[in-house]
Amino acid sequence: MGVYVVVAICVSIFVKPYAPWICLLGALALLYVLRAKNSLRQPPIPKELPRDHAYLSVLDSLFEHNPNAIGIFNDEGKFIRMNQAVESILGYSVTDLMHQPFTGIVTEEQLETTEWQLQQSRNGIPYTFDTSVLHQRGYRVDLHVTAVPVDIHHHSKGNILICQDITERKRGDEQVRYMAYYDDMTGLPNRRLFKDRLDERLRLCKVEGHKVAVFYLDIDRFKLVNDSFGHDYGNMLLLQLAERFTRCLTAEDFLARTEGDEFAFYYSNVEDVNDVMTVIAEINRVLEKPFLLEQYELHVTASIGVAISSEDTGEADELMKYADIALARAKEKGRNDFQIFNSDMKSVSINRLRLENELRRALVNEEFVLYYQPQVDIGSGRIVGVEALIRWNHPDKGMVMPNHFIPLAEESGLIVPIGEWVLRAACKQNKTWQSEGYAPIPISVNLSMRQFFQHNLKGKIRHVLEQTELDPQYLELEITESMTMDVDHAIQSLLELKELGVNVSIDDFGTGYSSLYYLKKFPIDKLKIDRSFVRDIMVDPNDAAIVATIIAMTHHLNLKVIAEGVETEDQLKFLYQNRCNEVQGYWFSPPVDRLELEHMLRYGISVAAASRE
């Protein structure tokens, strides 16, 4: 009977390697049927040949030529027989393994579990399990093992191990798992694994009475790095950031890259605001040293949102959502800042969604209007240009200033259609003034970062000029210094704009990153000194020196210069003495609507100012 069992096992292996026990029953039944039929139909086996010899020959063939490694073990768990597949799969010869325990080649991390499973088999319980062994050359081989108890002698029990090599399948499973749970670029865990681990940590901390703090971190102006240097440099920066952030962790903390330039941490030892400050100080410390992107040196700051768990905190999703809301609030505050979530932020987040929807509606319903601030020749006091500034005539809130909706428009991408509306409306209005007989003057329009990096910017602006029939010389486009970080792109785009015949100025000069070496290469017409310098020129000698230097440098570059934010007569005198060309600010006029500007164009600044007193 023992022979039939062994033969049936081997047959089952050939038939169905992944479910040997199901097939074993069928094979046993088949053998019994065959035996019965043979006893009736086949000639008897010669007396000099043992009756089971034919079956033992089948068994030997099945055993030796089976593609799976099969070993027979005595009651001490040592090899007493093995087939050829053992040598090909494990690399050991028969001599190496004979009378050696199977556990002698099992990997250390699997040893204890495998010993227990083999003991179950020796106790008479068939067992199927996965384990791993060391190949003779030293690498790991993963095995799917079926352990079957067997009687070796009348009073000696051993087992048979049928081992299928599943190394490739296991590696494939691990690769699929890696792709599902890890970021393929930085190697850090992704959002899915972060959420799973955070759920586990939250459950554990609730039992222990501790708190968990989730930190969402977003790299400030990361898009500018991609736009300026290319995605390869952006990826280089992300890899360096991932490496530095790992320095901020202990064994109980966790780091992931959730998307784009956003990283997520959770800390198990952060209980209050003081602990949060300590962690943020450590994060800022690793960001202090500049990042090297081949020949470029880059300083990076981050905005951080923090959410600390409480007794009411549910699953990881909730805490992650709160951290995301806090991060959005930190970016609203001006970036390079952090915010800790509180219940008031929920309403703020809802308001942001409502505001975004209202902005989309405002575009459709044409709720935006333009205001105009005159630009004045400092010598004659004559209006020589106007800057078009957007306002939102909200149906319920009245006139909304741009600082309340432009940041959200930039984040959501709505700044592109809004910017296109401003450009078209400004050109159309300027053409109308000229048709009505007003002296032709240029109108200035600010380009957003997204607009400046749009494909075919030249074609879009040409189309607007053709639609409105405005001569290109009466359109001035204002860009910021930060848009010129990608020098090659900036020069190419500016050259294309100059080919149209429009004027170009750099706005808020002095607050960005312009290199004076590259500045002379930019095809621009005018620099605008930022109001932050003009504001304190009469009280801060450094600001006065900066403004005077910018004016002198601009003249040497054969450019015009205009100062923004002029609010006092003393400021005006200082700028005049230093030969500033044009000025703009509340000393002359705040931004005004179309009708009031037309009054100024008709009667001049002084008359218009006198009429308001």
TrEMBL record:
The keyword Transmembrane applies. Gene3D superfamilies: 3.30.70.270, EAL domain, PAS domain. Residues 210-343 form the GGDEF domain. Keywords: Membrane, Transmembrane, Transmembrane helix. It comes from the Bacteria. It holds the Pfam family GGDEF. Residues 55-125 form the PAS domain. Residues 352-605 form the EAL domain. SUPFAM superfamilies: EAL domain-like (SSF141868), Nucleotide cyclase (SSF55073), PYP-like sensor domain (PAS domain) (SSF55785). The keyword DNA-binding does not apply. PROSITE patterns: EAL (PS50883), GGDEF (PS50887), PAS (PS50112). The chain crosses the membrane at residues 6-34. This is EAL domain-containing protein. It comes from Paenibacillus plantarum.
